[in-house]
Amino acid sequence: MNTELIKWPKSRILELFDIENPIVQAGMVWVSGGKLAAAAANAGCLGLVGAGSMNPDLLKTQINKAHALTQKPIGVNIPLLYDKTEEQIKVALNAGIKIFFTSAGSPKKWTPFLKKEGCTVVHVVSTPEFAQKSQDAGVDAVVVEGFEAGGHNGRDEITTLVLLQQLQNKLAIPFIIAGGIATGSSILGALAMGAEGVQIGTAFAATIESSAHENFKQAMCNAQYNSTFLRMKKIVPVRLLENDFAQKVAQAENNCVSNEELLKLLGKGRAKEGMLNGNLQEGELEIGQIVSEIKEILSCTKLVHKLKMEYLEARNRIL
Ligand SMILES: Cc1cc2nc3c(=O)[nH]c(=O)nc-3n(C[C@H](O)[C@H](O)[C@H](O)COP(=O)(O)O)c2cc1C
């Protein structure tokens, strides 16, 4: 099957981001630096540098790295929950970024400023209600993320399939669906249900170009159907690969410990320790439920080729 001949359904996000495939490589702490964003962009997707784990200087370096590796547009993901947001936004603007994905906060604060700067703004949410509020705040598109997704997660635990149905014909702006998408057939399903694109985290975290530690990538390949759980629901819900640390959290939660005790258990730097430094026992390993389907570490080019092949096969099956 020739994936060059692929004809995606009409999608406003292809024009919005000037991309060939309606696929966004998610911004991910410790995982999506300039190398991954550029590789995803070169494979015809929108690549995002994940600013969440970067101080402004590192963010600038990673954006410049991405720009050196691709001529295609790239964007940044900026979680709005840190005190360095303003500096990160300034650094990204000065480095020529025109596409901003904001998350973990209110879209009202930065959208008007970024729009005035001539940027495309997308906000990440986990409910139809917040999708509507983001539209009201003036964003160009939303990412709506199901409870299957890796990383920080909504409290309402709505699954991707349910969100797709809840969102159908509800918004004037395009929506991009995320959470549990790692095959071409799931992309077909999402597009058939009204999404105009998909955001993929876990499958890109498991690529050669991701900066996840090799130990973490190997652990992804070994994951089973039930290897992830949503933890820390009382503080900030996060989906984690099961390990010693995640089990300690589960035990503490079963014992109904206070938020202070949970925060003490989490400590500082665990996500870096796990995902970047490869400490599989005591690190925090953020990953999505669909990690069970990751069997090998591919390059971004091969991953996107595989997704397109699977998309065409699935489409042929139902035509
Ligand atoms: C390791 C990891 C780190 C993540 N970090 C962020 C982040 O910094 N900001 C954000 O908006 N989402 C983050 N996410 C969520 C992704 O952006 C994406 O929406 C999600 O991974 C999609 O679900 P999937 O993992 O099932 O593909 C992260 C996900 C993973 C797996």
From TrEMBL:
GO terms for molecular function: nitronate monooxygenase activity. The keyword Repeat does not apply. Keywords: Flavoprotein, FMN, Oxidoreductase. It holds the Pfam family NMO. It comes from the Bacteria. This is DUF561 domain-containing protein. Transmembrane segments: none annotated. The keyword Acyltransferase does not apply. Coiled coil: none annotated. It comes from Fluviispira sanaruensis.
